[in-house]
Amino acid sequence: KGYQPKLPTKERKALKQAYVYLEKKRCKALTQVREALQGKPHQKLKQTLKRWLKKPTYKEIAQMPAAAVLPDLLLPIVSSLLLHPAWLVGVDLQDTGSQTPKQLKPAAVESLLAIRGSVIHDLRKQAKRVRYQMNLFTELYSPTYKDYVEDMKQIQGILGDIQDSMVLDEFLNSVFHSDLKHKAPQLAELLQANRYKSWQQWQTLQQNYLKPETRQAFRQILLTESGN
Question: pTM value?
């Protein structure tokens, strides 16, 4: 609905069709959630968790100091993040080994997202996992550690905005049974403009994390306990 004030009357009326469809889906989903929460599998899970909380059990490794095992917990997921192919989407690979994000025009970004959007979205999910895992241990590291957590939050947010916009575009195409550019051209332009803005924000982070020194510093901070 945040787009509505910027749209002409004709397009605002067209969007009402989408709102009606969404409301029906929301009601159906709400019913399914209520049924799931009241169902036997969920009730069984709750009882199992309650029993565990009364008498929790852990693996032997839990007896070791957290600082001793944190690098082993965090480095694997950070390595998966840094090795993700999405870092190289829209990047010029030079013979010298340098990697520079291309300065693409909006139409080129749209084409790239249509082809590699799922790869970029997968990086967002990986950044989310890294962020949540790292968030658990901020008190055990130096303040610099939090800077990387904030970067993960930004990556998750920016790539999430791109994904949400693409999903909305596809959803409206299906509701209208036609290309959004024909049914609501101004809305289509707004969505594309927002995706391009997010893409430019992403490129700043992308370029930084393609630098060997940034990647090495990220790994190194995980090996350095606060106070050491």
Answer: 0.88
